[in-house]
Design goal:
single chain, alpha+beta
């Protein structure tokens, strides 16, 4: 991971204000300042890691524990019935801030929220691929 600080480091340090919606010793959640829809929330671990694969099991578990509660809270506060969870890893995957973060993006009938085009491909060599992933675990 780059030693360059990110905007999330400044938010965690209190140098940049945010609209906090949840905080515990491992996780901070706050409103996105450029939301895709009403209620768009960012959830970050307090542990500094650029990508999900850099994150400790403990920090990942802390994110997993709080996400359902935050999703319910966003739904309750906004009235949305649908939402996307988005988490990008690496510039090629459209990651812009290199500190792990998960977006909770409410989706509404007016079309606000995350737009998505799914570019599916044919599954090739599934047995070989599954074996390689299993071996890497």
């Amino acid at each position: 991971m780059s030693s360059d600080p990110t905007i999330f480091d400044a938010i965690l340090a209190g140098d940049i204000p945010c609209h906090r919606v949840y905080e515990d010793e491992h996780v901070l959640a706050f409103l996105d300042i450029a939301p895709l829809s009403h209620g768009h929330v960012l959830v970050i671990p307090k542990e500094r890691a650029a990508q999900m694969d850099d994150l400790s099991d403990e920090a990942a578990a802390a994110l997993g524990r709080v996400l359902p509660r935050l999703c319910r809270a966003v739904m309750s506060a906004t009235g949305c019935e649908a939402y996307n969870l988005l988490q990008n890893n690496g510039a090629e995957a459209h990651q812009a801030v290199f500190h792990v973060h998960i977006h909770i993006i409410p989706k509404f009938a007016d079309g606000s929220g995350l737009g998505l085009k799914w570019n599916s491909r044919e599954l090739t060599s599934p047995e070989e691929l599954a074996s390689a992933i299993q071996a890497a675990c």
